[in-house]
Amino acid sequence: MKAYKYSIVYSSRTGNTEFLARAIREALPQESCEYFGPAERRALKSSLLFIGFWTDKGACDSDTSLFLNAVHNKRIFLFGTAGFSGNDSYYEAILTQVKELIDPSNRILGAFLCQGKMPAPVRRRYEELLRQNPGDSKVRQLLENFDRAADHPNAADCEALLRCVEQALKKF
Asked: How far is the C-alpha of 63 from the C-alpha of 65, rounded, in Å?
């Protein structure tokens, strides 16, 4: 495979997406990394961008959205986390929303999304909702999802991410 330079740009509210970003960085040649960190214009000098985000209202967070507006003529790999789990179609819907923000001059090489743990105040909010409405099955599902998310992203998520990265690099 030919040599390439890359940047890893991420937005991480709770550390989940940063965890994935570090996994990518550790797996790729260190000497080829031109930038690693939160969205900054200097990352745009790389032809290959790994762009990570946390999910906010069914799409990427606003910092990532702003950065994506500045990206042109690059090869992109998207990755991120979502507090809510679901089936693959849920993750695909999020990725579709994010991809719509990307200028068509770019080439998306791949994407990966997995569940991420949520902060404790979210669980307390759900618990309060359940106290107010003890029979609410939707709130019970929210609590169950919160508990499932507690150990994500994990090693299995990182392995799946790195398989996707490997596939994407074959396209590069």
From this structure: 5
